[in-house]
């Protein structure tokens, strides 16, 4: 629409757009826009029609409830129309509603209201005859719905036979069929594991389940039901207040929301809204607002109805969980482990109580699954503290100028090559030692206990050194001076001196520790030891091809590919050269002819404290002689080397008959007695 359009043209365009969205929402269970967007369209139409009452027609969406149902099920006419509710968009509009109620009733004193959470599910009507469920129907257009009795009978929260004997012969119960959040998560997990399409949200899951032609489908799904009203003859003898009628429904076996509350006056209604908004995320079901109803049924009768809604009730919406916006572009960010993550830059949109302008797309597989392009219109969902996500692409609104999204060839942070194995969803930067995005993680790992064990250089000080610009790569650690560190807050001279000395002490590690410290993807301590023993030299390892790498036990094609990619990246070689220039060398692994060693080909466990060796030194000595060193005693253990305080491993070895070596025997077998 343009501003030059006449009021008649603008009204006609809005009606056609709203009718289209009604059909997508009610008949197909496949909405194209968010509830918030739909409400705004309807509000625009209401305002235009109020300005031009001569243009109001009986076919206008403001004059009826919804649309006719799709012809998948038999028609089910409602004895009393299932009308929708007007909305209050803020607290002032809610106060206006209360003012109108009191004016129509001619009273100044506060009105009693029943406040109910507005469940986000599928509205249904249940017809009971003589206490037995006779028919269940969807809301449809408010006057005629779809007969879904066979499916509804599978919901355990709906009684097939009522409790007690004081119910009317025939009456209708209205309520919301929904799917609890924990059940929704389980269902989607099961569907994903089975390779089937998952549901976008719990409402779609509930609606799709109940409108399935095979009742066995909803029978397998975690559906529930909550009643919110009852339509009974006036002489049925039910309580004269809405809240009390809900309690009567509970007596007959229906679930009612435990959060419903009776209040007096509109300010208490507003307080209830605020409390439920805060509590919303702790509930096990989705609610999208609050419904307020005049509690006294006699007052409801006096207030009556407008064409599409009661005058005695109104709803207020919570901030939307799901809204529509456009993807401006897709950028790629680098995580601390080198993972390349696509991020959608969005037209800012208010969803779930916050303004969202960016959202992660996880990986290229997710982009392909969504069928997303730059410039697309999308639905964004955010519930509670959950990170906003793109739930689907509105391909029917796709502009002509959208652009295909492609993974960059080089890291956007450092220009290093990007690696993505065929069987993995995540792409990664190969410049681990150089990449600024991976800087803190690379340094923290290099200094960790199992790597070069630089005492005093924990995560906190790594963060400080990087943030202050004193360290960019691991090679810069060896140029730190005591006087530089003492300028840092909470770093005294003694602490600074100790840290500089600890860094200096790390200049000559064992080769396997240095290999592990480099942070090559999927190269753990055991693989690093295997690489060190096999090649015995860092340069030989750096020049090895994938075939040579796979000669080592536990190094398959994937790990070999990671090693090759790491050393093929010039930036990583540059940092290794800078480490050498800073005085970092390494101790080559011990070379021993293991053919005559009693440990050759055996599995050994070391426990307790040895006088001559640390635990790591004992492991290295055993592995140099062809032994496999395990962490726990099992049926495969050949020997247990026991120092002081052997503990449970020693007890278990005795129970299983494992040969136990004391330190003297261990040294003798090593040839070092």
From TrEMBL:
GO MF, any single term: metal ion binding
Annotated signal sequence range: none
Any one Gene Ontology BP term: DNA repair
Cofactors that this protein relies on: Mg(2+); Mn(2+)
Enzyme Commission number: 6.5.1.2
EC top class, as a word: ligase
Lineage, highest ranks first: Bacteria, Pseudomonadati, Pseudomonadota, Gammaproteobacteria, Oceanospirillales
Domain BRCT residues, every copy: 594-673
GO cellular component: cytosol
Active site, renumbered: 118
Species this chain originates from: Halovibrio salipaludis
Positions of NAD(+) binding: 35-39, 84-85, 116, 139, 176, 293, 317
Protein known as: DNA ligase
Gene this protein is translated from: ligA
